Amino acid sequence: MAAITTDVVVRKFVELRDEVARIEQETKERVGVMKASMQKLEAWLMLKMAEDGEESKKTQFGTAFIVLVDYASISDWSETLAYIRENEAWDLLEHRCAKLAVRSIVKETGEAPPGVNYRQEKAIRVNRPTTK
């Protein structure tokens, strides 16, 4: 039986990481094809239901129905922040902090801002050998 060495462990780690990446990529591609097909089916259903003047359609396989989906993104942060402040619309904000900004404050002051939990953990990362 071969001795366990750092070389053996790192080699195995890289092999497994490569296999995981290959499987994830293959899965991502397969899922992408399926999602594209599902989008075409959704478009067909949307047209058919509009044609028939329906909001929902029950079948033996399930019920298709039209919903209104909301999307919101920031186009101008300074305008948005001014609106939030002027209208005290704090509910427009998500409850989280940018970890890089928190890290910067911790580095500068030695502590996280009040009300913010911050921690660091050691983790292992493995790089491939560089090719010359």
Fold and architecture overview:
The protein has two domains: 67 residues; 50 residues, no CATH class. Helix content is 52%, strand content 6%. It contains three helices and two strands; from the N terminus they run αββαα. It has a two-stranded antiparallel sheet with strand order 1-2. A hairpin with a 2-residue loop joins strand 1 and strand 2.
Topology:
Layout: H1 6-52, E1 56-59, E2 62-65, H2 77-87, H3 99-109
Antiparallel strand pairs: 1-2
Mean pLDDT across every amino acid position: 92
Q: Mind telling me the C-alpha Rg?
A: 26 Å
Counting structural domains, the number is 2
Which strand order spans the largest sheet, edge to edge or round the barrel?
Answer: 1-2
Tags for this model:
132 residues; mainly alpha; 2 domains; two-stranded antiparallel ribbon; 52% helix; 6% strand; flat
At a glance:
By secondary structure, the chain is mainly α. It has helices spanning 6-52, 77-87, 99-109; strands spanning 56-59, 62-65.
